[in-house]
Amino acid sequence: MTAPEISPPLDAILQEIKATAALPLAQAKTLPREAYADEDYFTFERDNIFKKDWMCLAHVSQLKTPGSYIALDLFDEPLLVIRDRQGIVRVLSRVCAHRAIDIMPDDDAFPREGEARLLVCPYHKWVYELDGTLRGCTQMHNAEGFDKADWKLSEFRSEVWNGFVFVNFDGNAMPLAEQYADFDRDIAPWNVADMEIAIELEWECDFNWKVMVENWMESYHHIGTHAATLNVNMPGELTWSEPEHPYFLHAHLPYTDKLRGELRASQAGGPAVPGFKWIEGLSETQAFEWGLFTGFPCFMFLTTHDRALWYRLLPVAADRCLLLTTTLVSKEAKDAPDYQEALASETEMPNTFHSEDMVMNAAVQRGLRSSKVVRGRLSHLEEPVWLIQRYLAARADGRYPEKANRAPYHGPRAMQAAE
Ligand code: FES
Ligand SMILES: [Fe+2]
Fold first, then answer.
1. Which of 23, 117, 140, 395 is least surrounded, with the fewest CB atoms within 10 Å of its CB?
2. Is 101 in the pocket of ligand 1 (CB under 6 A)?
3. What is the atom index within ligand 1 of the atom nearest the CA of 96?
4. Is the pLDDT assigned to residue 419 strictly greater than 60?
5. What's the rounded Cα separation, in Å, for the pair 141 and 352?
6. CB-ligand 1 contact for 190 (6 Å cutoff)
7. Is the pLDDT of residue 418 over 60?
């Protein structure tokens, strides 16, 4: 009888990730499969990455009125993202201050989103205000020294950045305004805080969260996965990445000259190109490309000339995550006379290309489970995959990557400045 296969100890996995990330881009290769499939490593990521960094949970357009809420679960924390009566968006724990029950049990009577007047625990009817303070509890008058002012729903540290609600579980992360200051500058014209989610779809994913983020950030795969769809207007070989940043990734996916010409002509009154009213104030580069971003670890954001896409990714296990894909449009686009028509025609697009990605991502995870799994080499077009490795390696040491002070390796700006 042969001995059971045992996953290498966590330390060996971390050493291998660091050794891989230390290779220069021209020698880059994929991470060991344990980085995507080992539960001990996933637990390490949970405690040292997801709980220490910022996780995006919602956009303010999902929480318009006092009492509007989204209930979700992340790393055994039942959470409630809610706008209180003062208009403050908070991330509360759903754990009741009485007997620790989740105040929104898994039942149709407790919808995962909606609008609440008060938060009522169904077990013994303790009643909480929208900010988590305890407003009332019955039959507690004989409990010695009990003061309801001492009891409330716990709150997690949260911040709203560009309209996105983020949580930081351990409470020690650097404020988002500092971490994402450069990110903020790159997306300023979109005014994302004022945008609204127009289209959203939920997906259950049988693959590691990094399989999704890598797929999101590298556009080399347009050549294969999206050959008949995205690659027509945004060929994979044109993609390029900004130099390394400690807190986010930024890659560019320029449009073809053909699409650029069609969009210019439509702006000048020529034949209409499907889509929403354009975002105003974009630079030439911003208007004629998809801007791909990931705020570490997994805030996925994308800009185009007429919309933004946001993917909310919630890691569940080494080989499982939950995904919400959304399309955001400006208020001006929503008010445009042809908005409903544009919405009808554009709802299919993100569904189509994301379905293509989902097939590939699930197939990647199957390959990672195989005895024939490989450590393949990376193309220069996969620079974001290499940058993700470098983020993971830095976080394994409790650091962030250094901000690179040089021109991009590839793409239109590559030759503009010396290294
Ligand atoms: S557990 Fe919530 S009121 Fe008793
Ligand atoms: Fe894709």
1. 117
2. yes
3. 2
4. no
5. 59
6. no
7. no
